[in-house]
């Protein structure tokens, strides 16, 4: 039996939205620290993570917690697991673009069963429950019907935190650019995935992401009728990072063939 009841889901969504609104408040950003090349953590990331960690512990004391801004704990695959990216798209957040999100997922028995991606700047909240569909603000989401790569709009990441992968990432971007309608680089993995789910994008490729980047968005795409895998078609891990290929499903094989 799932840990997530309708009443619990409502409380979790309220907590995520409240944390997101506090993060977006004027003057919230006060401190920035570099974790690595083009990889930053702010006081807002830390505050959102601690706020939601405490709230989730109150609501679901039996569940484990994995957040971006903390050392990975030893995980028991038999127990439920919350996976959080407190601010996905921190560089966008720092530059005030308004394209960032709080991303939270719940995994049970090794698969994501619930996900929410909330952008407080746009007010859009993307949600999904396994077997129950994906939604944006109560409106059902459905992937695009695009079946021809040359008619597709794709998002392709530049892996700024892994500059060692830049050569391959930009080569893949050029390969896809030459075969699709156009490419975008939006800078927030969870929202890229949700945009695939809603048909704003037909596919999304990133050479390296962590589970907290894609856990919630993965389920949103799948519940909207799309597909998310590693670039070679393998299932994504919930405990270690790697490349990601998301699509409307129709284009998955064609995109995969371009990434080999």
Order of helices and strands: HEEHEEHEEEEEEHEHEHEEH
Mind telling me the CATH superfamily name of the largest domain?
Fructose-1,6-Bisphosphatase, subunit A, domain 1
The number of distinct structural domains comes to 2
Supply the CATH class of the largest domain: Alpha Beta
Secondary structure category: alpha+beta
Query: What's the number of helices?
Result: 7
The CATH topology of the largest domain turns out to be Fructose-1,6-Bisphosphatase, Chain A, domain 1
pLDDT averaged residue by residue: 94
CATH architecture verdict of the largest domain: 2-Layer Sandwich
Overall strand count? 14
Can you tell me the overall shape? globular
Intertermini distance: 40 Å
Helicity level: 25-40%
Write the layout of secondary structure elements.
Elements: H1 6-24, E1 32-36, E2 39-42, H2 43-59, E3 64-67, E4 81-88, H3 90-95, E5 101-108, E6 111-119, E7 124-129, E8 133-136, E9 139-140, E10 153-156, H4 166-177, E11 182-184, H5 189-197, E12 203-209, H6 211-223, E13 227-229, E14 242-247, H7 252-258
Parallel strand pairs: 3-4, 10-11, 10-12
Antiparallel strand pairs: 1-2, 4-5, 5-6, 6-7, 7-8, 8-9, 12-14, 13-14
Helix pairs in contact: 1-2, 5-6
Can you describe what's shown?
This protein has helices at residues 6-24, 43-59, 90-95, 166-177, 189-197, 211-223, 252-258, and strands at residues 32-36, 39-42, 64-67, 81-88, 101-108, 111-119, 124-129, 133-136, 139-140, 153-156, 182-184, 203-209, 227-229, 242-247. With 260 residues, the protein is an alpha+beta fold. It folds into 2 domains: 6-140, Fructose-1,6-Bisphosphatase, Chain A, domain 1; 149-258, 3-Layer(aba) Sandwich (D-Maltodextrin-Binding Protein, domain 2). The protein has a 7-stranded mixed sheet, sandwiched between helices. It has a 5-stranded mixed sheet with strand order 11-10-12-14-13, sandwiched between helices. A two-stranded antiparallel sheet has the order 1-2. The mean pLDDT is 94.
């Amino acid at each position: 039996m799932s840990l997530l009841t309708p009443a619990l889901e409502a409380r979790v969504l309220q907590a995520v939205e409240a944390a997101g609104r506090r993060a977006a408040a004027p003057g919230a950003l006060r401190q920035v620290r570099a974790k690595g090349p083009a990889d930053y953590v702010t006081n807002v990331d830390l505050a959102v993570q601690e706020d939601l960690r405490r709230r989730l512990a109150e609501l679901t004391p039996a569940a484990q917690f994995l957040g971006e801004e903390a050392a990975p704990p030893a995980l028991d695959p038999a127990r439920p697991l919350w996976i959080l990216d407190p601010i996905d798209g921190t560089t966008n957040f720092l530059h005030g673009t308004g394209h960032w999100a709080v991303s939270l997922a719940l995994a049970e028995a090794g698969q994501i069963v619930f996900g929410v991606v909330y952008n407080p700047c746009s007010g859009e909240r993307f949600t999904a429950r396994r077997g129950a569909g994906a939604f944006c603000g109560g409106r059902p989401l459905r992937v695009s019907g695009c079946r021809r790569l040359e008619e597709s709009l794709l998002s392709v990441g530049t892996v700024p935190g892994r500059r060692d992968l830049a050569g391959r990432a930009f080569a893949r971007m050029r390969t896809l650019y030459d075969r699709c309608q156009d490419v975008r680089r939006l800078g927030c993995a969870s929202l890229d995935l949700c945009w695939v789910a809603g048909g704003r994008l037909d596919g999304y490729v990133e050479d390296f992401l962590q589970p907290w980047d894609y856990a919630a968005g993965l389920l949103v795409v799948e519940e909207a009728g799309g597909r998310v895998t590693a670039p070679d078609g393998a299932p994504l891990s919930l405990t270690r990072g790697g490349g990601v290929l998301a699509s409307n499903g129709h284009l998955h094989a064609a995109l995969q063939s371009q990434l080999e």
